[in-house]
Amino acid sequence: MPLLETKNLTKVFEVGFVRRRRIVAVDKVSFVINEGEVVSLVGESGSGKTTTARMILRLLPPTEGSILFEGKDVWRDLNNHRDVVEYWRKVHAVFQDPYASYNPFYTIDRVLRQAIKLINVEPNSSEGEKLLREALIYVGLQPEEVLGKYPHQLSGGQRQRIMIARCWLLKPKLIIADEPVSMIDASLRGAIVELFMRMRDDYKTSIIFITHDLGLAYYVSDRIFVMYKGKIVDEGSPDELLRNPKHEYTKKLLESVPTLYRKWVLQ
């Protein structure tokens, strides 16, 4: 049984006051994700990839279709608040803008202590303090340098590492990483990506990378799904897509991948 499966997932928005229009943001999207697998949803802005992620995260209800996680429909079979909280512990997100993930009026300690509570450990206990420090060290941060700081006092890379430290505390089965390095300095992007890969290797965490960068998707993914106008128009392993793109949009995306990089891969 796959860890996650979407079946004909569809989201339709109705816009306008006088003359209402229907916009199909996600159109009958179906795919599966297995344990320990890294899958990328690739597409330009407006392709439907983030809307798909929001439905999986149970932040936006689908218009049609279903999302099965460990065999349960996440919109029909989670019947109470406790079930939903447990789902969010198992399916966790790291978003594009790390600053937006924090309340600017609290120190960064808060997001980590909240995660410790979710695993039923008292944050201020010796065990909680130990876990907090271990999480920061896991992602390459010195606790003394970041604890007690407010979000604006840290760099974007540090803020994103702390969100990955939160994932380490929760040990989710699935991480949805929505453009997690697009607002990070280029010099730090590789280190952030490597942290996700380490989570996959150490804990068999499955990861959905949402990105517009086909080069990044090639580097991190076991499989890639190309989204265009709400539909999955191409899919396959990174090598399959690079060597034999089926859809014109995929070919267009490949043109943005540096020529030398493509030649090296195709050798």
How would you explain this protein's 3D organization?
A hairpin with a 2-residue loop joins strand 9 and strand 10 (231-236). Helix 6 runs parallel beside helix 7. The strands form two sheets. The protein has a six-stranded mixed beta sheet, sandwiched between helices. A four-stranded antiparallel beta sheet has the order 2-1-4-5. It is globular and about 55 Å long. It starts with a strand and ends with a helix. The protein has helices at 49-56, 81-90, 109-118, 126-138, 143-146, 156-170, 186-203, 214-220, 238-243, 248-255, 259-266; strands spanning 4-15, 21-33, 38-42, 64-69, 72-73, 91-94, 174-178, 206-211, 223-228, 231-236. With 267 residues, it is α/β, with parallel strands linked by helices. It contains eleven helices and ten strands. The longest helix is centred in the C-terminal third of the chain and has 18 residues, at 186-203. It has a single domain (39-51, 82-266), classed as Rossmann fold (3-Layer(aba) Sandwich), CATH 3.40.50. This is ABC transporter ATP-binding protein.
